[in-house]
Design goal:
Length: 188
């Protein structure tokens, strides 16, 4: 189409003025710039996702921690305290921390692992051998050996953690739960 226009007599198709050449150039420049922006945006998506990954994923990675040989709990008569190592991942940082849990049994005789964090306001709840109950030192909340709420200000029993058994090892997935509510709700 432009070839035909170029072949017209000079009188009918005067050579473009300087300003029209400049406007064509600036138009092409804008097109080129937009194209580069588009390609740049496409290429940067994976990089942005990679950079933001620590911000958009779960703060705490849910890995299981070993809590001892399963065989050692076969003759359990009361809750036993275990300290497990958990790995906390916050953005790009990794940290290991220790958490206290109790291995106990439910009323069917099945193993149950309880977090020691009180569901009322988060104090560490110890097992009281004399009273045969968990007794929270902060506000006197009491819980049965299987974690069921007995008395006190807590709106629910102690929280059970997810468990599994692998190669004879009891594995516990540590989680945090919302306090001051009656239903168990994972928060991290
Ligand atoms: S923190 Fe345990 S009863 Fe209040």
């Amino acid at each position: 189409m432009f070839e035909g226009a170029d072949s017209e007599p000079a009188a009918l198709n005067p050579s473009p003025s300087g300003s029209s050449v400049e406007s064509r150039r600036s138009f092409l420049g804008v097109l080129l710039g937009l194209g580069s922006l588009f390609v740049g945006a496409l290429l940067s998506v994976p990089l942005i996702r990679f950079a933001l990954f620590p911000l958009i994923r779960r703060t705490t990675e849910l890995k299981s921690s070993p809590a001892g040989e399963i065989g050692e709990y076969s003759s359990l008569t009361e809750p036993v305290l275990r300290t497990i190592q958990i790995e906390l991942i916050d953005g790009w940082r990794k940290a290991t921390s220790e958490k206290v849990v109790y291995v106990t049994k439910d009323n069917q005789g099945q193993l149950r692992v309880l977090t020691s964090i009180c569901p009322h306001l988060g104090c560490t709840v110890p097992w009281n051998k004399g009273k045969k109950q968990f007794v929270c030192p902060c506000h006197g909340g009491t819980f049965a050996a299987d974690g069921t709420r007995v008395s006190g200000p807590s709106l629910r029993g102690m929280d059970a953690l997810e468990t599994s058994v692998q190669n004879g090892q009891l594995l516990v997935r540590f989680q945090y739960f919302r306090q001051l509510v009656s239903d168990k709700e994972v928060i991290g």
